[in-house]
Amino acid sequence: MSAELQANHHIDSMPEAVGGFDERILRQILCSVDNNAHLSQRQLSNELGIALGSVNWYIKRCMHKGLIKISRAPLRRYMYYLTPQGMEEKGRLVAQYLKWSLDFFRMGREESASILARCAANGRFDILLAGNSDLAEIFIMSAVDTPVTIHAIYDEVHNKGGKRLRVPITGVIPAGMPGATYILTDMFRPQATWDSLCAAGIAARSIVVPELLYFRPVEKRVQ
To answer: Which helix (H) or strand (E) holds 207?
Structure first.
């Protein structure tokens, strides 16, 4: 698969642009249109997993900015094409995404290795990841050839994948592991996952929050 196609299908957590214009969606739309001019807005909606109205808004915005042009096709359909400016913008967004991905992977490997080494040094060999994400995958890779064991990935929402790099994904916090360390790897709902762990009786001191998440948990006060 080409680099631009990988960037098109990988939506994890690229930072959003200012002004409400999500560069993840813009990148995906430009790549999809460039790959298939016959795509309908409904097909784009299904492919990208966003509302049809949102696709329509982005298409109109792209046309207004001179990134996409439109022509009529048979059976009252339309065909979308990238303008030279649209091709240039697509290339910029793909390059930006790939640079961000490489930087994220490098920083993730460094921090995950450091966290797992500290866990092992403190005799905490049983690890549970809280959040099914790219960051969780980096921790799994970093755990290879270390004395720690990552037993499962807990995620209330994204838990239908079965396994990630052979580590089972579950929507229920595993029981029977009182001495386990929970590493927060939820890049989408970190506060909600933190709250779920605390509600299940997991002590805050047993939860590790990587700095790469740029997240500071807000602990709920008991009334």
So the answer is: strand 207-208
Give how far Cα 150 sits from Cα of 86, 127, 145, Å: 44, 5, 12
**Whether the predicted pLDDT of 101 surpasses 80:** yes
Whether 58 and 80 have beta carbons less than 8 Å apart is answered as: no
Architecture of domain 3-99: Orthogonal Bundle (1.10)
- Reference 190, options 159, 223, 156, 167; nearest CA is 156
**CATH top-level class of 123-213:** alpha beta
Where do you find CATH 1.10.10.10 in the chain?
Answer: 3-99
On whether the CB atoms of residues 176 and 154 are closer than 8 A, the answer is no
CB burial of residue 181 (10 Å; 0-12, 13-18, 19+)? buried
Per-residue pLDDT tens digits for 56-69 = 999 999 999 999 99
